## 1
Amino acid sequence: MKKSENLAWHIVEKEIHKEIEWLKKSIDIMGKAENSPIPSEYYLYRLIAILIVSGQIKAREITSDNLWGGLSYAKIEKVHKHGKAWHRKMMDIIDKYFKDQNYDIVTEPNLHNGRADLGIFKKGKKDLYIEVGTTSIYKLCLNLHFMKDIIILIVPSNNKVIEFEK
C-alpha cells in the first residue's frame, strides 16, 4: 500500500488487521511489560501494523533451512552465557555467522528502550539488532517508532526470522 493512495477507511483498516494477525502469528512475545502504559497488547500490534501499512517500516518473514550459512553448533566456540540452551546456541551461531563476514558484534547493546540480544555493526550498513526467541512487543513497538535507519531481526526458531527495516 502506498502512502499517496487515497483509500477508503475500510480498506486501510482491513490491511491493518491483516498485519496485526501476521504479527501475532509470527512473533513469540513475553507477557505485557510492567512499565507499559498501554493497556492492551492489541494497541501495540496496531501501532506496528500502522507503521507497516503506511510504509514507514518494511516487514518480512524469511524461512530457510540454511539461514545461517549451514553453521553447525558443534563446531562453534561457545561465547554467550545468558538464556536457556537453545537461546545461547542461536546467539553463538548468529555471532559466528556475522563475524565471518567481518561485522562487529556487541552483546546486549542498548536500544531506545531496553537491550537487544545482539548488535551487528559494519560501516556503510544499517545497524542490525537481533532478538533471539521471545521479545517484548512494547519494546519492539517503541524501538520501531523512535529509532532510525535500523533493522530489527527477531529469531523465533532455527529456520525463521522476522525482519523489520526502518
## 2
Amino acid sequence: MNKQTNTYNDPFLEHYKASKRLLWGIGIIFVGVMIAGFWNFHLVDGFGRDFIAGKTIGDTSLLAGTYGERGGGFGFVFAAIAGLAATFTACKCVAFAMIPGLACSSDKQTTRRTAIQAIIAFTAPVVIIGAAYGIFVGFLGSEGVAAINERPVRLAQAQAVFSIIGAVMIFWGLIELGYLKRFTNRLTPLTKEFFSASTTKAGLMGMLVGLFAVGRPFPVFREFLAYAATAESPTYGAAVMVIHGLGQIAVFLGLFFLLVWFAGNRMMTWASEKPWQPRMVTALALLGGGAYFVFYWGIAFIYDVGRWGFKLGWYG
C-alpha cells in the first residue's frame, strides 16, 4: 500500500512507467558509451587550442614559459582564454545538456528570479573550487606543476577525477529516474525539498563543473598552469584560477541567459504543467554524461576498449 501511494504521489512515476524509464535509461547509457568510444579528442581539443587560443593569444605551448617576459597581468588573459578554449572539450560538453533542467522551476517564483539564483548557485562552487586549486598550484610552483603536468600523472589524475564524477552523475541520474526509492524514502521531507530545489541542483552541478579543472588534461589548460605557477604565489594562483573558472562557464551561462530571456515564460509553463518532462531531461543528461565519463576515463583506459575511431583508422 505504501509503495502504491508513493508511486501515485510522484507525477514522474505516473507518466513514465518502469519499462519506459528502463528503456530510456539503457538507451542514454548506450549513447553515452558510443560517444565516448568514438570521441575524437584531437579534433575537439584542436578547436580550442588552434582556433580559440591560437587566434587570440597565440601558441600556448610557447607562452607557458614566458611569465618573466609578459608578467602577471597577461596571466589573467591567459586564464580567460584557457577557460574559454576548454568549453567544448569532452568534460564540458556534458554540462550543456543540464541547461533546460536548471532553467526550469516548478515553484511560484518568477523565472528570471529563479534563473538568477540558479546562476549564483552554479557559479559559486566553480569559483571556490577554482580558487582552492589555484592556491595549490601557487604552493607547488614551477617544479611542482611540471611534475603533475607529466603525461602519466595528468592522465591518472583525469582518470580518477572524471571516473568519480561520472559515478556521482550516474547515481544522481538514477535518483532522478526513481530507481533509488529505498534510499530517497529514508530522507526527511525537508531534505527531499532541499535537494529537489533548482538552486540546490545548480549548486551540485557547479561543484562537478568546478572539479573538471582539477582533472582536466587539456594541453592549453596545463600550459596555463605552468605559466601561473611561475609566479609561485598562492594568491596569484587563486586569482587567475577564478578567472579561468569564469571563462570555462561563460558560454554555458550565456546560453542559460538566452534560454531564460527568450523562452522563460514558456519554460515556466512547461515546468509547472509538466514537471516530469524537465526532470526526465535532467535525469537523462546526468545518466548519459556519467556513462560517458565512466567509460571514457575509467573502463576504456583500464581495459583498452575505447578509441574506436582511431583503431578503425577513421581519424588521423
